[in-house]
């Protein structure tokens, strides 16, 4: 009996198994380069927060500008803002105003460091470790016209890109006007990378197509020099320049002219103003053509010394001061009187057949008069503009009261 053939092995049933789930990895976030060139929303928020807490407004009798907190008691600004530091004040956004003094100015008269009389509200801005590279986005911070009226208002700002740089100067393609002078130039992290300087000469007063700043390295040097290098001693006397168009009214007569003077500022608020003026009489129009015809021309020259006292009213952005004054001087007047009469060439022509001819006879009388003058006045200074009224009294030979109004400019 033969053995049965070997049975084939039973097929092995394999259980169907699901393939392993694919592992889906989250896409990696693109790395942000250190110098991305754009701030983005988050960067602008950091800049806004730094600017609100660290930017201050600085005013003197003659200038105003921006600055930023270096620490609790020191402020950095441009020297142009404080080159005449009478009534120097630093103003925070909460309305607090604190006196200050200049404790450092650099050799190039660009950077000035102020020491506050007391700590001021706010947070000091951090200085960047290095100047920004060309192409980086930056934000220039200045003083807006309504600085301090709304605490949530973003300070005046201009976004731009660094167009050029060297060890002494940064250039940005942003419209930066005089109200940015002394303000910080911030990077996207809210760090100070420069100190804004005034527009170059020859540009418009309020706007320049290219902004400029002192790089942060110079600011670090200034901070390290505070207390080691004595600041430039400010002069006790400040000379200025003042000119005005003026009109005088006296006994129904009107004069127009101009005055020119050299204001001298003493002791913070006392102002001396030696000046000269030239005026010409403006005759009233008249339709009276009756003979004899007369004309009077008068030229008036004035010279006096006015003493005023400045009372600050508004400190920024355009400083406003009220200036009561008294003065004494002298008046010189040159008068030329002309009378015209028609005269017959031949008085007997009326009884003859020949025609009569006439000629104009002119009689001229010249005179010089002079008299002392006393004056009291009230002026209003709005930044560089001046508005003034004066009552001038000439006590002899006969009493005259002259009303004078003026509008002009003054360098302080």
UniProtKB/TrEMBL annotation:
| Pfam families named among the record's database cross-references | Trypsin_2
**Signal sequence, start to end:** 1-21
Keywords (alphabetical) are: Hydrolase, Protease, Signal
Q: Example GO molecular function term?
A: peptidase activity
What the entry lists under InterPro entries is as follows: Peptidase_S1_PA, Peptidase_S1C
Per its record, how is this protein called by name?
Answer: Serine protease
Choose any GO biological process term that the UniProt entry carries and state it.
Answer: proteolysis
């Amino acid at each position: 009996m033969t053995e049965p053939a070997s049975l084939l092995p039973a097929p092995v049933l394999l259980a169907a198994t699901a393939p392993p789930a694919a592992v889906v990895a989250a896409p990696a976030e693109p790395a942000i380069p250190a110098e991305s060139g754009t701030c983005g929303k988050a960067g602008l928020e950091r800049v806004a927060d730094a600017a609100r807490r660290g930017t201050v407004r600085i005013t003197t009798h003659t200038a105003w500008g921006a600055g930023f907190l270096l620490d609790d008691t020191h402020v950095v600004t441009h020297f142009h803002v404080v080159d005449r530091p009478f009534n120097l004040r630093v103003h925070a956004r909460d309305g607090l105003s604190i006196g200050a003094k200049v404790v450092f100015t650099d050799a190039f008269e660009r950077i000035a460091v102020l020491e506050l009389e007391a700590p001021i509200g706010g947070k000091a801005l951090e200085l960047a470790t290095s100047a920004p590279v060309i192409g980086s986005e930056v934000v220039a911070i200045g003083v807006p016209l309504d600085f301090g009226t709304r605490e949530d208002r973003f300070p005046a700002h201009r976004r731009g890109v660094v167009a050029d740089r060297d060890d002494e100067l940064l250039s940005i393609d942003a419209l930066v006007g005089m109200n940015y002078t002394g303000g910080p130039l911030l990077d996207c992290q809210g760090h100070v990378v420069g100190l804004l300087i005034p527009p170059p000469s020859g540009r418009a007063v309020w706007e320049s197509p290219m902004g400029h700043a002192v790089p942060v390295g110079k600011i670090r040097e200034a901070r390290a020099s505070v207390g080691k290098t004595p600041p430039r001693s400010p002069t006790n006397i400040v000379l200025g320049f003042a000119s005005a168009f003026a009109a005088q009214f006296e006994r129904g007569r009107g004069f127009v002219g101009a005055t020119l003077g050299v204001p001298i500022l003493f002791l913070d608020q006392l102002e001396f103003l030696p000046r000269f003026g030239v005026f010409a009489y403006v005759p009233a129009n008249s339709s009276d053509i009756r003979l004899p015809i007369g004309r009077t021309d008068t030229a008036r020259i004035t010279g006096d010394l006015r003493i005023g006292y400045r009372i600050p009213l508004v400190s920024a952005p355009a400083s406003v001061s009220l200036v009561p004054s008294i003065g004494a001087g002298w008046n010189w007047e040159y008068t030329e009187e002309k009378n015209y009469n028609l005269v017959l060439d031949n008085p007997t022509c009326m009884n003859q057949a020949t025609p009569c001819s006439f000629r104009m006879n002119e009689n001229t009388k010249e005179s010089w008069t002079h008299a002392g003058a006393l004056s009291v006045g009230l002026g209003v200074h709005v930044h560089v503009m001046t508005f003034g009224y004066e009552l001038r009294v000439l006590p002899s030979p006969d009493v005259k009261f002259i009303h004078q109004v003026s509008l002009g400019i003054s360098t302080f």
